[in-house]
Design a protein that fits this description.
This protein has a 3-stranded antiparallel sheet, with helices on both faces. Helices cover about 40% and strands about 10% of the residues. It has 9 helices and 5 strands. Helix 7 packs antiparallel against helix 8.
Length: about 260
């Protein structure tokens, strides 16, 4: 019998389980059998400090608790703005978004893109994205421009040439509002809700326009998500009740609850 065969027999007799090799560091290894591995005590789950358990609060914890457990409402902080950039021609919104990829702009961060004038592009963004957006355009040697949407010089329609300056400003405000409402119709409801509330705080949208638009926008998205069953062949008397059953119930936040 050779030495190799003798060593193999000793290993087989000493243990009925194959060996496991566990790396402890880069230089040494420790071999464990399956039986030894099973006898190891399970590691206890380490919870984050103060998570779901009582502990001695720190000053930062107490300051955060004061903000959370407070009846005062936090004022809205979401702010949006239009940034304007030059262009060599008027483009469709889809073409504008396609061109924005040339400078690495994330189109998900662009809430609205249109051309208010022949040589101007308007981009609606959250103010948190302004620095990144300007940096991307600066890398392409493009700077933002100042554009006054309500300047009467931009109203070039000859049908309104006889209007006074105040009437032209009113007309331009109405055009801006119409473009805004159209862009809101393409946004998801949470984003649309936040943007419309911001422009309501800026007194661009009235309270009646805001409530009417949010209600219609939400009902439209509910109808798109839960369309009525077109294959239903029930009589017309019960069709209305079946369609009402398919509609999503009104959210609790949309109704005024009196305690």
């Amino acid at each position: 019998m050779t030495n190799t065969q003798h060593d193999t027999d000793n290993i087989t007799d000493s243990s009925d389980f194959p060996l496991l090799t566990t790396a402890t560091d880069t230089n040494t290894t420790v071999t464990l059998t399956y039986a030894q591995q099973a006898q190891k005590k399970p590691t206890k789950i380490k919870y984050a400090r103060g998570q779901y358990r009582s502990h001695q609060p720190t000053a930062a914890n107490l300051e955060l608790a004061t903000q959370v457990f407070n009846a005062a409402q936090i004022p809205p902080t979401a702010e949006y703005k239009y940034l304007y950039f030059p262009c060599n021609k008027r483009m469709k919104p889809s073409v504008i978004r396609q061109k924005l990829t040339l400078v690495g702009v994330d189109n998900l961060r662009i809430l609205d893109a249109h051309c208010p004038d022949w040589n101007t592009i308007a981009l609606l963004i959250h103010t948190n994205y302004e620095t990144d957006l300007l940096a991307k355009f600066h890398a392409a040697k493009v700077n933002s421009i100042t554009y006054d949407y309500c300047d009467p010089i931009h109203l070039r329609d000859q049908r309104h040439a006889s209007l006074s300056r105040e009437e032209k400003v009113t007309k331009l405000n109405q055009i801006f509002k119409n473009n805004l409402l159209r862009s809101l119709s393409f946004m998801r409801y949470p984003t649309c809700h936040s943007v419309s509330k911001f422009f309501h705080r800026q007194e661009i949208l009235t309270t009646e326009e805001l409530e009417s638009y949010l209600h219609n926008s939400k009902q439209k998205q509910i109808a798109d998500a839960f369309p009525p069953n077109a294959t239903n062949n029930q009589p017309s008397s019960s069709s209305s009740s079946s369609q009402e059953a398919l509609q999503s119930p009104i959210a609790a936040s949309d109704t005024t609850t009196q305690l």
